[in-house]
């Protein structure tokens, strides 16, 4: 057999992989004295990978005999991962130094996680998908527990690891059964098997697909597979939480679209009984639990569950509008979340584990710019136009209506109304609550720049959503 | 059909109209504490003035065109374009939105000027003008949008500004809560708007007014989709325009500064729902069920709010309920197919109600200073502490009286023509019941408004302390009052009906916008009654009812002031019910304090009580909190509990797939 | 008796279920971890059986990778458990619930 490697198809991954080694070496040589070299190298690697990604946008084609794809879809997600990682890494030193966990491995682990995600978005084979997923997950386990001396961080990583590995078992079993039925783990083979089969769920296939789906739902933190996420998000170092709530979720959705977004497949599967119910439960439970939180970090964790539920509507709709809506949604959602978490750790003054909402008191007068940006993030998460968060919802919900999921959309829109309560609470506290003895925020230029950047992106993508939506649509079309 | 034939002309001016207030907002907002309070007011007012000038230019440009061609558009850029769907940031000025921008910028300008005097000395003046300009910007977006999406941006924006301005005095917790209530109730309405938008998008493949309406005319009369869309849109309108059952936030919204009440909660934002219904007239006309709902809710709100207005003592509360009632009139008009009459009333109402609010603001301003001087702790808004102000505040008195005559529907004043047009359209379209309710509500309106005038301006000044009395407000406040007083008189002359020898210009002006609807309704319902004799009779009846209302008020509050007391004791329970606004706040208390023990009580109350919804809104919040508090307990923190539940879920999903 | 594909699959399923039961019932973090390893290895058995059935090397290659992944997970997992022991002086999983609700 003659396999064409087509290295450009994994250009981004090659840069990242080389970057991992480079950062490791750089930190080894200089790390004792300062971390800046590792930090700068990481940023450079991310930028380089981004440049490669944009240069080869959607033109690289399949590589390694259809094992990986360098199509527009992969490029779109890879750019999103790189952007989120860049923003998180950019302002991490501030946090790491403050908490005395300024180790070079941090940067390397982030790069490895991104490397895993890029393989998930470009996988043409379940093997590649599985390896990407595990590469990402294992480095996230470590990142969650990066704050070694804190019990909460340790608990976070232990819970994540145990449940994650548990579900790796299910996922792997699912892949094994699919392999048993089809005789191949290649996605194209699986698709043609399903399309050509009179009883697509017969044999081992039903159980196999169900377990594969479960593995993905776990990573998306969809109810009832969400239990790990509030605790893990809560205990992990905040920059890691910001990263985890945005990028891996996007990667899981990317993989789900790669595997299931094909009319030939999705028609034969019981989406109405699984995705429909899971979406409704996710949205509702995430919302209600978010209402009851007094910690901003946990509130955002539950809010992120809710948003996964909204995204599920796009997946359940299974149409082009839904898929391109999801891409837009995931891209913009990353910026909202990174922005919100970034401000949260700047504002937090009681140390890790006590991210109280009340820390935001009087932020409106203490630091009007940060308060304004936080308002933008909250309003965008609520889905108030003309911010980017609104268009994501508009598209995904419209796709739901188009696919006949009217009641699901009604539930989702009703929940959007409920979500105002807790997003608004942050604004009310910032502008209306008086509290004694609050100091001005410390100067943290990188954090401020990140927040401003996120705010601008959300505003601009809201005012000019056209180009990104077009790009999302082209990317989805490149899937087929 | 008719709609499609309208040709549009490009105009490069339109963007300037919202741009000026936006610029004003930007400058005041960025300067923040560096900006001087005086300059902030002048800048904000100047921005509104420039915006008004451009609006006037655009209006005359429109006037110079042929009736059927009166439509100006400007596309700034394509907002998004995905597949066959596209939405533009583009503006549409046709006879309908032209009237709206004139009202928003004109009345808005006067209120900005008035605010300079009213807000003098407040530490938050700059923030106030920033938000007021921002509001004007969003309101202009709302009325100028040429598609539902952009309209929704304005729709949400004005809601947000309203929320900020109601809670302007944040140190006062009640006021902050009132702001939040407004925002939340509005969100319930927005839920309807959003769903309607998704449905429109799916049903018509577009959100453009022109495309949607053109495609809608191809739908069958009374089609389910259109009915669903219009009912959902109306839910949005109910939230924004304070109709039953979502009106609860508007009386509470009076916690904001009075000019804000005048601008947002009387003249502009609350009328957005009416505008939206009128804008979607084709859709509504195609859905007779929705029309009946609109007319029914409008009529019910008109009379319901009027009865509450009868017994209030807080001067702003009377005006608030009056606004709710008048908005009901506008919806009543839309519901019987008289969209033009509804917008006509919207316009005249903007003049006289803004004037009434600003007049009351002038009174409160004066009372406040008086109270401060004498060290009294009485409520400066309670009419029982007023009286005899006619002598001390002549300018406020005269302008206020003119506005009252207008709202009471005295012939010659603006309110007469618009209200009469609505009542006649209700009558002539065969909705006699609606007409009866409307006429009674008109009588009640005349009564409570004159009650207000008599209690505040006539008789003796109640707290009269040696030599001290309230003083007239400064010119910066009274001049806008006078301008609005003139408008309250002549504003209706554009709509003098044919029976009175007028040309009813406003009806002809609106004709191109509503021609399509008229065509559809004649096709399906035939023509209404056309008889000058009947029209005259109907008119005289409504004038007589209004005069009766004034007469009774005169009798009660000037001639024999002991009558109200006697009546109160005679119909004690009923009066108590009305005075306490049907006890809604008490129900709310019961619902919040001990939600579980009192559940049965609560439900029992709700059946007897028309105003259940306030209880429901707040009760819902309580229930939500309750559920949320318990739901979070599922997250036990034990990793094996998680694994167990998740494992069980895996089994369920596997079973679903295998079956 | 001929050992057919189904024999392997049933054995694999059994082992998998034992692993799941171990995860759900044992309290010692290391034993829970070992149970997860059992699940993964049960799946590997299925892979090999299927690879044999199809006469395809793909399944066997998959097993190599999954072994590597499992090894990496163990390495990270044990490290985390060591840190846990330093904090709590126990590795009982029920003592790990600082974060809830």
From TrEMBL, chain A:
Membrane topology, record value: Multi-pass membrane protein
Catalytic activity annotated for this protein? a quinone + NADH + 5 H(+)(in) = a quinol + NAD(+) + 4 H(+)(out)
Q: Which residues form a coiled coil?
A: none
The listed locations are: Cell membrane; Endomembrane system; Membrane
Q: Name one GO cellular component term.
A: endomembrane system
All residue ranges annotated as the NADH:quinone oxidoreductase/Mrp antiporter transmembrane domain in the record? 123-418
GO terms (BP aspect): ATP synthesis coupled electron transport
Q: Does the keyword tRNA-binding apply?
A: no
Keyword check for ATP-binding? no
Q: What top-level branch of life does the organism fall under?
A: Bacteria
Principal EC category: translocase
Q: Name one GO molecular function term.
A: NADH dehydrogenase (quinone) (non-electrogenic) activity
Sorted alphabetically, which Pfam families does this protein's record hold?
Proton_antipo_M
Q: Which UniProt keywords apply?
A: Cell membrane, Membrane, NAD, Quinone, Translocase, Transmembrane, Transmembrane helix, Transport, Ubiquinone
EC number(s) given by UniProt:
7.1.1.-
Q: Transmembrane stretches, by residue range?
A: 6-25, 37-60, 72-92, 104-120, 126-146, 158-182, 202-228, 240-261, 273-292, 299-318, 330-348, 369-392, 404-424, 444-464
Q: What does this protein do?
A: NDH-1 shuttles electrons from NADH, via FMN and iron-sulfur (Fe-S) centers, to quinones in the respiratory chain. The immediate electron acceptor for the enzyme in this species is believed to be ubiquinone. Couples the redox reaction to proton translocation (for every two electrons transferred, four hydrogen ions are translocated across the cytoplasmic membrane), and thus conserves the redox energy in a proton gradient.
Record HAMAP family: NDH1_NuoN_1
The record's NCBIfam families line, in alphabetical order, gives: NDH_I_N (TIGR01770)
**Quaternary structure, from the entry:** NDH-1 is composed of 14 different subunits. Subunits NuoA, H, J, K, L, M, N constitute the membrane sector of the complex.
Q: Which family does it belong to?
A: Belongs to the complex I subunit 2 family.
**Protein name, as recorded:** NADH-quinone oxidoreductase subunit N
Which species does this protein come from?
candidate division LCP-89 bacterium B3_LCP
Gene field: nuoN
TrEMBL record, chain B:
InterPro entries from the UniProt entry: NADH_UbQ_OxRdtase_chlpt_su5_C (IPR002128), NADHpl_OxRdtase_5_subgr (IPR018393), ND/Mrp_TM (IPR001750), NU5C-like (IPR003945), Proton_antipo_N (IPR001516)
Ranges for domain NADH:ubiquinone/plastoquinone oxidoreductase chloroplast chain 5 C-terminal come to 459-587
Q: Name one GO molecular function term.
A: NADH dehydrogenase (ubiquinone) activity
Which GO cellular component does the record give, naming just one? Answer: membrane
> Gene3D superfamilies this protein is in?
1.20.5.2700
Instruction: Report the transmembrane regions from the record.
Output: 12-31, 43-65, 85-113, 125-143, 149-170, 191-209, 221-239, 290-311, 318-344, 350-367, 396-417, 432-454, 475-496, 536-557, 641-658
Compartments where located: Endomembrane system; Membrane
**A Pfam cross-reference name:** Proton_antipo_M
Q: What is this protein called?
A: NADH-quinone oxidoreductase subunit L
Instruction: Please name the source species.
Output: candidate division LCP-89 bacterium B3_LCP
């Amino acid at each position: 057999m003659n396999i064409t490697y087509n290295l450009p198809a994994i250009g981004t991954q090659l840069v990242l992989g080389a970057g991992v080694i480079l950062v490791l070496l750089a930190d080894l040589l200089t790390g004792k004295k300062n971390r800046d070299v590792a930090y700068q190298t990481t940023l450079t690697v991310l930028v380089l990978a981004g440049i490669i990604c944009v240069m080869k946008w959607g033109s690289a084609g399949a590589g390694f005999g259809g094992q990986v794809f360098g199509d527009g879809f992969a490029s779109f997600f890879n750019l999103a991962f790189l952007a989120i990682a860049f923003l998180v890494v950019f302002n991490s030193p501030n946090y790491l130094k403050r908490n005395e966990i300024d180790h070079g491995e941090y940067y390397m682990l982030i790069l490895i996680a991104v490397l895993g995600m890029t393989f998930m978005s470009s996988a043409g084979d379940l093997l590649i998908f599985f390896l990407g997923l595990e590469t990402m997950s294992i480095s996230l386990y470590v990142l969650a527990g990066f704050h070694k001396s804190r019990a909460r961080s340790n608990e976070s990583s232990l819970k994540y690891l145990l449940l994650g590995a548990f579900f790796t078992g299910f996922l792997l079993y699912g892949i094994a059964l699919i392999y048993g039925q089809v005789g191949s783990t290649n996605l194209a083979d699986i698709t043609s098997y399903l399309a050509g089969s009179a009883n697509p769920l017969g044999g081992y296939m039903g159980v196999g697909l169900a377990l594969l789906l479960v593995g993905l739902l776990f990573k998306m933190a969809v109810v009832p597979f969400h239990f790990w996420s509030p605790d893990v998000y809560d205990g992990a170092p905040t920059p890691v939480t910001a990263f985890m709530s945005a990028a891996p979720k996007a990667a899981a959705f990317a993989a789900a679209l790669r595997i299931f977004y094909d009319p030939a497949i999705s028609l034969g599967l019981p989406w109405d009984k699984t995705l429909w119910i899971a979406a409704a439960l996710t949205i509702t439970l995430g919302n209600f639990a978010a209402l009851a939180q007094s910690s901003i970090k946990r509130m955002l964790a539950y809010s992120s569950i809710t948003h996964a539920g909204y995204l599920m509507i796009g997946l359940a709709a299974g149409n082009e509008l839904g898929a391109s809506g999801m891409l837009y949604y995931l891209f913009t959602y990353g910026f909202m979340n990174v922005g919100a978490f970034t401000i949260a750790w700047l504002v937090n003054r009681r140390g890790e584990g006590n991210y109280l909402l009340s820390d935001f008191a009087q932020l409106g007068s203490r630091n009007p710019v940060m308060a304004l940006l936080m308002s933008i993030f909250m309003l965008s998460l609520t889905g108030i136009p003309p911010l980017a968060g609104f268009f994501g919802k508009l598209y995904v919900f419209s796709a739901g209506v188009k696919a006949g999921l009217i009641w699901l959309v009604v539930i989702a829109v009703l929940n959007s109304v409920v979500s105002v309560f807790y997003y608004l609470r942050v604004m009310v506290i910032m502008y209306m609550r008086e509290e004694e003895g609050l100091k001005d925020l410390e100067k943290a230029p990188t954090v401020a720049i990140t927040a401003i950047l996120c705010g601008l992106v959300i505003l601009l993508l809201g005012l000019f959503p056209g180009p990104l939506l077009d790009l999302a649509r082209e990317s989805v079309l490149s899937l087929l | 059909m008719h709609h499609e034939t309208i040709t549009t002309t490009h105009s490069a001016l339109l963007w300037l109209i919202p741009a000026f207030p936006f610029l004003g907002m930007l400058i005041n907002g960025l300067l923040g504490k560096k900006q001087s309070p005086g300059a902030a007011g002048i800048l904000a007012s100047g921005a509104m003035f420039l915006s008004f000038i451009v609006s006037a230019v655009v209006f005359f440009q429109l006037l110079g065109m042929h009736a059927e061609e009166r439509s100006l558009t400007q596309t700034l850029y394509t907002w998004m374009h995905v597949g066959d769907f596209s939405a533009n940031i583009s503006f549409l000025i046709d006879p309908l939105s032209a009237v709206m921008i004139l009202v928003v910028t004109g009345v808005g300008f006067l209120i900005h000027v008035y605010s300079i005097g009213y807000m003098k000395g407040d530490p938050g003046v700059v923030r106030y003008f920033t938000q007021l300009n921002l509001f004007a910007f969003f309101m202009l977006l709302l009325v100028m949008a040429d598609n539902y999406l952009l309209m929704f941006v304005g729709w949400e924006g004005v809601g947000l500004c309203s929320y900020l301005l109601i809670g302007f005095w944040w140190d006062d917790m009640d006021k902050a809560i009132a702001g939040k209530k407004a925002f939340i109730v509005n969100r319930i309405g927005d839920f309807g708007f959003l769903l309607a938008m998704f449905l429109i998008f799916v049903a018509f493949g577009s959100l453009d007014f022109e495309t949607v309406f053109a495609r809608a005319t191809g739908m069958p009369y009374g089609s389910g989709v259109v009915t669903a869309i219009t009912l959902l849109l109306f839910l949005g309108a109910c939230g924004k325009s304070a109709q039953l059952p979502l009106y609860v936030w508007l009386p509470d919204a009076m916690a904001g500064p009075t000019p804000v009440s005048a601008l947002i909660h009387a003249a502009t934002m609350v009328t957005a729902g009416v505008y939206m219904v009128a804008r979607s007239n084709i859709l509504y006309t195609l859905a007779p069920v929705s029309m009946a709902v609109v007319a029914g809710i409008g009529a019910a709100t008109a009379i319901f709010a009027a009865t509450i207005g009868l017994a209030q003592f807080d001067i702003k509360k009377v005006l608030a309920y009056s606004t709710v009632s008048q908005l009901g009139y506008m919806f009543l008009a839309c519901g019987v197919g008289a969209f033009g009459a509804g917008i006509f009333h919207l316009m005249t109402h903007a003049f006289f109600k803004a004037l009434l609010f600003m007049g009351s603001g002038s009174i409160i301003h004066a009372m406040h200073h008086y109270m401060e001087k004498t060290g009294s702790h009485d409520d400066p808004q309670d009419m029982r502490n007023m009286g005899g102000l006619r002598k001390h505040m002549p300018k406020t008195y005269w302008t206020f009286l003119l506005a009252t005559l207008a709202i009471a529907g005295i012939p010659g004043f603006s309110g007469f023509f618009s209200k009469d047009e609505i009542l006649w359209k209700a009558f002539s379209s065969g909705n006699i019941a609606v007409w009866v309710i409307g006429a009674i509500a008109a009588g009640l309106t005349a009564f409570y408004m004159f009650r207000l005038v008599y209690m505040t301006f006539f008789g003796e000044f109640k707290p009269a302390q040696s030599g001290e009395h309230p003083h007239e407000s400064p010119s910066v406040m009274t001049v806008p009052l006078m301008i609005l007083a003139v408008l309250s008189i002549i504003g209706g002359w554009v709509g003098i009906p044919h029976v009175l020898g007028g040309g009813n210009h406003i009806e002809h002006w609106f004709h191109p916008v509503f021609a399509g609807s008229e065509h559809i309704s004649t096709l399906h319902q035939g023509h209404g009654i056309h008889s000058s004799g009947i029209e005259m009779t109907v008119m005289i009846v409504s004038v007589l009812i209004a005069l009766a209302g004034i007469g009774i008020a005169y009798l009660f509050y000037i001639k024999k002031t002991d009558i109200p007391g006697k009546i109160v004791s005679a119909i004690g329970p009923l009066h108590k019910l009305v005075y306490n606004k049907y006890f809604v706040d008490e129900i709310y208390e019961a619902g919040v304090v001990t939600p579980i023990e009192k559940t049965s009580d609560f439900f029992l109350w709700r059946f007897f009580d028309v105003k259940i919804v306030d209880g429901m809104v707040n009760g819902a919040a309580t229930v939500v909190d309750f559920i949320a508090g318990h739901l979070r307990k599922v997250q036990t923190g034990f990793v094996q509990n998680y694994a167990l539940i998740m494992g069980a879920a895996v089994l369920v999903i596997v079973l679903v797939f295998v079956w | 008796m001929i050992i057919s594909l189904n024999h392997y699959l049933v054995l694999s399923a059994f082992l998998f279920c034992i692993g799941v039961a171990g995860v759900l019932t044992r309290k010692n973090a290391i034993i829970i971890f070992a149970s997860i390893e059992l699940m993964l290895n049960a799946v590997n058995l299925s892979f090999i059986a299927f690879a044999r059935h199809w006469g395809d090397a793909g399944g066997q290659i998959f097993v190599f990778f999954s072994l590597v992944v499992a090894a990496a997970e163990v390495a990270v997992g044990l490290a985390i458990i060591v840190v846990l022991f330093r904090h709590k002086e126990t590795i009982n999983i029920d003592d790990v619930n600082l974060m809830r609700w």
